[in-house]
Amino acid sequence: MKNFNWLALGFLAPALIVITVFFLAPVILTGIFSFTSMSTSTGVTGGEYLLNQSGIRALADKGLNTATLDQLKNAGYVVDEKGLAALAERHGVATATEMRKLHENGQFSSRRDMERALKSLKANKIRSTKDRKAAAELFKHSLLNERFPTESKFRTAITEGGIPLEDHELIVTQAYTGWVWTVDNVKLLFSLPSTLRYAGNTLIYVTLTLMFNIGFGLFLAISTFYLPAKSASTFRAIWFLPRILPPVMYVLLWKWLTWDTGFIATTLSWIGVAPINWMLDTSTHAWVVVVLINGSFGASLGMILFSSAIKAIPSSILYASEVDGANRWQQVRYIILPHLRWPILFITSYQTLSLLTSFEHILLSTEGGPGRATEVWSLAAYHIALDNYGGNLQYGLGATFAVALVIIGIIASLFYLRFFNFNEMVAKPKIEG
Amino acid sequence: MMTISILKKALLASAIVLSTTAAYAEDITITVWAGGSNASDSYRMDAIEMAADILSKEQAILGNELNITIEKKRDFGGWSEFKQAVTLAAEAGKAPNIVATSHLDIAPWSEAGYIVPIEDYLDLDAWPINNIYDNLLKIASFDGVQWGIPQDAESRPFFFWKETMSKIGYSDADIEALPAKVQAGEYTLANVLVDAKKAVDMGLVEKGYGFYPRASNGPDFAQFYLSYGGVLQDPATGKLVLDKKAMTDMYQFFVDAVAAGITRKNHIGTDGSQWYADVANGKVAMWHGGTWHYGRYTGKEGNNDFFGTIQFSLIPAGNEAGKANTITHPLVYLITNQETDRAEEIAAQLINIASEPRINTLHAIKSSHLGITKQQSNIELYSSNRWASEATERLLPHASSQPNHLQYGAFSEALWKGLEASWTGVQTPAEAIKEVEAELKAILGDELIIR
Amino acid sequence: MSHNFRHWPIITILTIVSLPLIIMFAFQIIDTFTTHPIDSMIPNKVTFEQFSFLWDEAETGRANIWQVTLNTFIFATTTAVVVCTVSMTTAYALSRLNFPGRRYFLGGLIILHAFPTVTLIIAIFLILQIIGLYDTLLGVIMVKAALELPFGIWIMKGFYDNVPWEIEMAGVQDGASRFTVWWKLVLPQVQPGIFALMIFSFLSGWSEFLLPQVLAPGNDAQVLSTYMTALIADDTKIDFALFKAVGMFYALPVIAIYLIFQKKLMNIYGGGTKG
């Protein structure tokens, strides 16, 4: 008995590892991310401490007293004894003496000015740009634009810069470049007007596509059932292709069909219809195309499952009905459809979940347009987290969107598990009890 | 004779000494990624390779053997895929050494520590940087730090199809005077609506082809916001500005254009090749585009008489509040944070050399962009190019740029969303502005001024 | 079946609704090998010019098509092998072995299917970065295989469920170990399932677009789907004929596999319909 469990563990181990690393860990991480301000500018793995002009401005807004502000702003570069001594050590006393003669106690607000001052050395030129830049650093007093890897280093630096202790906290908080914990994402999710639209779009998308998938899948399965084997398999083959063609290519075909210069527009122009973009003309066009693209892709699943379920119906029942004089519609209505109840429910639940989370075809075709009309929730999550023109990717907010989807997905699956008599599905194996 | 051969021997000997002292050869691979680049933009990467050749030769003279391998990549799905790739690669410590990208990326990428300031390595007062236009250099800087070097310059003009303009009643002299009238604010976007409508009503162009804007998001639309008196960044505080009046007017302009039948309601998302074919051959009365379009119009689209068929100007003012303007959106070379300082330094040197006027001119002319240095006007290839010199003269003095601000991306994204929603009739401009305002307030917080 | 019904009305209706797809597929093939005048759909010249991307030298900054094809092939094959191997053992355990927590494992499997994995991609990126597989083909393969697993396990479990218990009972009674029974007796029974899953995973790997794009942006790990989107994005040369030619090249293995294994592919759901 014992070794059976070891066998089971061995058999399950690869899947367990993969699922832990690539499903569970990402979900947990995403959950964590959704409560952070993570974005491109904060980075994913943590931050450093940096004061720049924007930071100084923000500090002013946050009420840092002006004396400290000026201190931070104007420290700049000073030709002082300490710097001159360091210069003497590196480039010789003569250089330092000349520098003292030319610029003693000189103050420079920018590095460029400091470098220019060093360039003005005549007798003791520092010729290489690299050396000159290093020499300029010797006179630096400003903390601006310098990155400090740790908080303690940064605190030491501002202490040395003579910043009053009571201002440290504010400055340190502002200077941190990494992400911080926040519930702003959740608040944003509930306050952004677009959230509601994405939810609505998702509802439209899932409902319509599902109806198409089921309805058309049924139609294909039933109609091909009544055909001779050869023509039946031809039609099934045609409708199976969208599923296996690479999406990039499959969507390109749809673009070719619906574009302004595409097939529909060109053909209709022969009868005098002005060419329009049949994919993006209005949101209705976009929805029709999105549903057709995803529907043609998804209908094959229903087609195959329903076909095999129909085949499983004992042919005697069908013959009997024909003998009784049932017409085709009655046969479908009273014999075939009742037999398909479970497959239909299965596909409904399976595809609801798939559709909720899939956006690849929409991304490749309408990209959510026109005017965000076809931007569904999962696509919005992708756009926010990974793909916006401005370039500051909002990982935190995107994660919040994703988590919402995870929660909906889990609730829906639990519901379906109840519904589909889970206990029977997981009936105990017959050996080893 | 004797002395010469002795000299030769001495030189030879010293050369041998040099080569033996430089026994160790340094091999380094520099990766260059260029965003938003087409085949004609190949010099964004090739220039770095040329620079590598020069740098190696310079080093060889000093007796150092420096072998630089350049790896180039430009085929990304689009701008957003490119930015996504650079961001994630940088996060993973695998960033390409050099990126040619939008100057707008400087703010987020510098904050994240993905890039290092080029001024750490280059003397800004030395050739060729001291010859680069100051305003361009400024665009490549952020918070007073010179992060990058401009890679090219461009500007986004308004175009008129001359034949259509003359058929609706403009004399040749009028058309010649148009750019000046636009600049003076005498020809405004209101005139655009009227004239484009005329062209449609007279059947000179099809319905929806009177005014033909860019078909996707881009910096171009900020120009129309400026045309109505909008301001992008408050100069005093550095905060971004949402001028609701200007933004509403700007949205309304596009809604009016759709209502008048001069712009298609479904214009956004128009296929790129179709867009170019339409504007380059007179299917369209007026449109706006970029200086680099010249190459496409005269090249692939086969317009052999650009100056005879097309007039160009600044983007007209919208009303008294705004001015005629154009936005320049130069790409910049940035160097990324690498494990070794050496890789960053060499990358910086390569960018420095690639910014040589003569090398940059190759890119400027091949891709129909504008030059970055003053001396390019003294280079035959550049100065003999009518488009480069006329466009530089007419547009660049009036060019502004978008602000380098951490949140500008979110700002421009929201601006576009609102425009798209109004344009396609999903929302009215007023509704769209309301949503834009709510969204920007939520995302930008203190960094936004609403007027 | 049902000889008293006429076929032609059904065939007519089916043909009409299938027309868009038929037209798309037909022109996909026609346009690839011909050119046609602007404003017309009717070809006037046969050409192979559109395939010049296969032998022309790669442009500056663009990956070599053959390298990309090789990458795609490695990607799809390895994914298929990993998915099949892991599904084979896991599904057997779930179908036939008794162990604590089996119920939850099965329930979890169904829930996994509902995960919006692609929107978790930032976290996946972070994990790949930690284990050092970001921007490598291997990394994308691992992720793709993981995402295909719930589907694969589910399908294989269906096939195992259909294997009669008697086979195993007999084996166990003859004194064979459970492992031997699985390896020698049960596996041959589910061969059609393994085969169908193998092909399916290969096709799915061959088509994958988002994962390579986000997780492996470098030239070294590029695959055909990203190559093709990059090509479409290049706005100096929007050219449907070229896209279609590249698409044709891209889809060729898919179509070949499809034509050869059509029947077996349709079997993919053969086991899993009872749920």
Task: Characterize the structure shown.
The complex is a heterotrimer of chains A (433), B (451) and C (275). Chain A has 433 residues and is mainly alpha-helical. Chain A has helices at residues 2-33, 53-61, 66-74, 81-91, 93-103, 111-119, 129-137, 151-160, 168-175, 184-191, 193-225, 229-244, 247-258, 263-269, 283-311, 315-323, 328-339, 341-357, 360-364, 377-386, 395-419, 422-425; strands at 49-50, 77-78, 107-108, 147-148. The model of chain A has no long low-confidence stretch (mean pLDDT 85). With 451 residues, chain B is α/β, with parallel strands linked by helices. Chain B has 19 helices and 16 strands. In chain B, helix 2 packs antiparallel against helix 15 and helix 18 packs antiparallel against helix 19. Chain C is mostly helical and 275 residues long. The chains are: A mainly alpha (433), B alpha/beta (451), C mainly alpha (275). Chains A and B meet through helix 2, helix 6, helix 7 and helix 10 of A and helix 3, helix 4, helix 18 and helix 19 of B.
Morphology call of chain A = elongated
Low-pLDDT segments of chain A: none
Mean pLDDT of chain C: 81
Number of strands of chain A: 4
Helical fraction of chain C equals: 55-70%
Family (chain B): Belongs to the bacterial solute-binding protein 1 family.
Pfam family, one (chain B): SBP_bac_1
Keywords (chain B): Signal
Signal peptide (chain B): 1-25
Summarize this structure as a short list of keywords or feature phrases.
heterotrimer; A: 433 residues; mainly alpha; MetI-like fold; 2 domains; C: 275 residues; two-stranded antiparallel ribbon; disordered C terminus
Summarize the structure.
Chain B has 451 residues and is an alpha/beta fold. Helix content of chain B is 47%, strand content 14%. Chain B has helices spanning 2-21, 43-61, 79-91, 106-112, 134-139, 162-167, 172-184, 189-201, 220-227, 244-259, 272-280, 293-298, 306-309, 341-354, 357-366, 380-383, 386-395, 408-423, 429-444, and strands at 25-34, 65-73, 98-102, 115-116, 141-142, 145-146, 149-150, 158-161, 211-212, 240-242, 286-288, 310-313, 326-327, 331-336, 399-400, 448-450.
